[in-house]
Design a protein that fits this description.
CATH superfamily of chain A: Hotdog Thioesterase
CATH superfamily of the domain at 6-22 and 58-136 in chain B: Hotdog Thioesterase
Largest sheet of chain B: 5 strands, antiparallel
Number of helices of chain A: 3
Order of helices and strands of chain B: EHHHHEEEE
Strand order of the largest sheet of chain B: 1-3-4-5-2
Helix content of chain A: 10-25%
Structural class of chain A: mainly beta
Number of strands of chain A: 5
Largest sheet of chain A: 5 strands, antiparallel
Radius of gyration of chain A: 18 Å
Distance between the termini of chain B: 18 Å
Oligomer: heterodimer
Largest interface: A-B, 27 and 27 residues
CATH class of chain A: Alpha Beta
Order of helices and strands of chain A: HEHHEEEE
CATH architecture of the domain at 6-22 and 58-136 in chain B: Roll
CATH class of the domain at 6-22 and 58-136 in chain B: Alpha Beta
Radius of gyration of chain B: 17 Å
Amino acid sequence: MADVTESKITDEHRAMLGQRSDPIEVVPKTADAQRMRDLLGDTDPRWADGTGIAPPYILAMMEPRLPAELSPQVLSSGILTQTEWKFSQPIKLEEPLQAVTQLIDVRDRLGGRYGYSVLVMFQTSYLNSDGEEAAASLRTITQFDRPES
Amino acid sequence: MSQRYFEDIATDDELEPREQLPTEDKAVEFFGRDNPTNPAFGDAEAGRRMGFGGALVPGLLKLSWITNYVGMWAGSEANLRSVRVAFRRPDIAGRPLTLAGRVVDKRQEDGVNVVELEVVTLADDQPTVRGNVQVEIPSRP
């Protein structure tokens, strides 16, 4: 694998920083919450049947696809390497949220075990009907070039 | 599920390890059987075609296990602030995973008790996911 000593991130890629997707409506579904709770063996009374509250991991069902128009394609392949969930308010079942995704960072990773790679970070905010953030997720995609076989 | 209180928690406290056995069936059930997802989650052959040793365990399932693991430790009066994980190695269905964790910090922020934990999933004693979790824990009444 050839050493890369210069960034492959261009001004065009950087111009995507801070851009936001159009809002996408996502609805935390009661059936999803129930199924996930059962699978995980979660007995927390806060999101038991009848409470109307979703367990925090409902975010796994709500995360929208990363919008292509906000995704700088610096290298040919990419995998999800980090995720962070942040919670500001309880998530109410069946109450629609608006998911807005933003490219927040793109940076080089020179060297390392796999050679040159690029870290691309997105934040998705889940906004309630008052426009307040109920939760957020941060996803880091590590882009790399597949070695030629 | 018992409640934990801020005063009773100390840095370096360890959480009791919990074992999980990920399977293809659990991966499919997690996302819902009507919900199309990565074929490598439910099909060992698809996972092998992608260069792995079998069906892949979804990262979001592992993240959910970690979220639940800390939530059950903290108790239902605690509030999860954030959970951040780095996926270090792929996990293969059928290979047991051990969740383990320890308290790395406790502090007060603007009058709120915050406890920070490091959590890991281990397969064959090797970490596959490393996480940091922040949780607000009440004071003893």
